[in-house]
Design goal:
The protein has 320 residues and is mostly helical. The chain is 68% helix and 1% strand. It is built from 13 helices and 2 strands, in the order H-E-E-H-H-H-H-H-H-H-H-H-H-H-H. The longest helix is centred in the N-terminal third of the chain and has 39 residues. It is globular, with a radius of gyration of 32 Å.
């Protein structure tokens, strides 16, 4: 008997599932758009300010550096790179760079060193620590113009407090013309800057020191580490980030220091305290060489960017 084979019905192939497009609901999309517009409304003023007064100023200075212009007349004579060539042949330009370099190195180093010692001293328990913080920080809030005028009286050769004190204690032979002697005028200005900004370094180190665990100081004390040993072996290595921050701020501040120098010495005697900022002011405002001073400003900006870039690279390598 022959059996019949039953053929199973062939099912049609199922079509592959198509991805369902997800759509953002219209209200949510409008909400995100509204949030972005609010964000841009808050950011727009500062962006407009930066573009108008910083980036525009940089490009405008770069443009003017290729012209001979007094800043008043409408006529500009294109001179190409002559302003840059004249600047690099001017010995006063190199002297201003040298003075700025000495000022920056000494102020940054001494301020950081004294600030670190003061911060660690005030970090340890003791009487009158809070009052002493205020005393050391007080010069920071004073205007450089006020300090410059005050120290001009203190440094005065005939009636200044320093020379009067030296005469009173019988050391009149050590009196100096602190702002009139070309050999010491620069260092007298450096001392004023250190007096003003050491408190700022102290506060930054003090706040960073609070992040160090107390157990570390207790362990160092048990091991017999003294004040300076703890400061050098424990505190300083843990505050490298703060040190680099202070160095960057100090370099930028040194490059743009003007008011203190101008009030005390105006770049004199001779050119012994001529800074790059006072040199720039003298060329632009007093001698009305705006095109030339624009070239000086571009070189100053380039130096600041290169130094900051180098410092950031060094910090990145040390962190790794």
């Amino acid at each position: 008997m022959q059996t019949e084979r039953q053929e199973l019905p062939i099912k049609p192939k199922a079509e592959p599932l198509q991805p369902v497009a997800t759509r953002t609901p219209a209200p949510k999309k409008k909400k995100n758009m509204k949030r972005n517009m609010v964000g841009w409304a808050f950011v727009a003023p500062i962006v407009l300010f930066v573009v108008s007064f910083i980036y525009y100023g940089i490009f405008y200075n770069a443009y003017n550096s290729f012209f001979s212009w007094d800043g008043i007349s409408f006529d500009k004579a294109f001179v190409g790179l002559d302003n840059y060539a004249e600047m690099f042949q001017d010995p006063d330009f190199y002297l201003s760079l040298k003075n700025t370099f000495i000022f920056t190195i000494l102020t940054v180093t001494i301020q950081a060193g004294i600030g670190l010692v003061l911060a660690y001293f005030l970090h340890t328990p003791g009487p009158l620590r809070t009052a002493m913080k205020s005393v050391f920080f007080f010069p920071v809030v004073l205007s450089p113009v006020v300090l410059g005028a005050a120290f001009s009286q203190i440094y005065d050769f005939q009636f200044g407090y320093i020379n009067e004190f030296l005469r009173a204690i019988g050391l009149g032979s050590f009196e100096q013309n602190w702002l009139g002697d070309p050999d010491i005028a620069l260092y007298s200005v450096i001392a004023i800057n250190i007096f003003q900004w050491t408190g700022s370094s102290m506060v930054m180190y003090y706040m960073a020191m609070l992040t160090i665990e107390k157990e570390i100081f207790e362990a160092a004390k048990i091991d017999g580490a003294g004040f300076f040993r703890t400061l050098w072996s424990i505190v300083f290595p843990n505050l490298k980030g703060t040190t680099f921050t202070l160095s960057i701020l100090g370099v930028i501040g040194g490059l743009k220091t003007f008011d203190l120098v101008w009030i005390t010495t105006a770049g004199g005697p001779g050119s012994s305290t001529e800074f790059i900022s006072t040199y720039l002011f003298r060329k632009s405002m007093l001698q009305q060489e705006v095109g030339y001073s624009s070239a000086v400003a571009i070189i100053l900006l380039t130096i600041a960017l290169l130094i900051t870039y180098f410092q950031l690279r060094v910090q990145k390598k040390m962190d790794n």
